Amino acid sequence: MKQTIMVVEDDKMIRNLIRIYLRKSGYNAVEASDGEEAKKVFLEHRPCLIILDLMLPKVSGEEFYAWIREQKYEDVSVIMLSAKVRIDDRISGLKLGADAYMIKPFDPNELMAQVEAVLRRTGQLCQKIVHEGLCIMPRKGEVSLYDKEVKLTKIEFDLLYYFMQNPDIVLSREQLIRKIHPNMESTVMDRTIDAHIKKLREKIEKQPSKPKRVQTVRGMGYKFVTNP
Fold it and tell me: What is the pLDDT of residue 97?
């Protein structure tokens, strides 16, 4: 699973340049042009790392960074970008808790090297799969939907994790049974799987009766849909 990196930058040319380099390096890249938009994008994608311009309209980079820390997102790393060249500004940014600080103009290759270096140090903290605000953190056993905790049973959690590991792939009931209860008879578990999926939908779907995320594929099984 590719790691997601968010670029928060009001200069469109710089934002596009960074996005191109990130995708060439194998990362998912999402973007925001100001600190206000950045909050919405963050909650939808829950990135592992943020490349953050400090001089932003509406909500400044510093304010957005403070919001991140107030929410206690300890698994998120931040690389600050700034046109401020004074050493005091750089020290101030690092003291705030940034993982790295780069001065504009910068070399995109150097920025990618910083991204790799930061993720080598912090990447183990950021083990999660995210899709449209639905975030599962397998190491912590936690699930959230747009930052609100979703309480699942162990079977519901295992089902969701398996679905999100295999997006847009039809999974038969037999496959799900083998994953969740490998020693149980499939004939016994068919309807039980259906019941667990019904309960899972009630917790992660806006309209459980018309599911968008976990859809039934008639005669075949179920599929976690990323582009409904």
Answer: 80
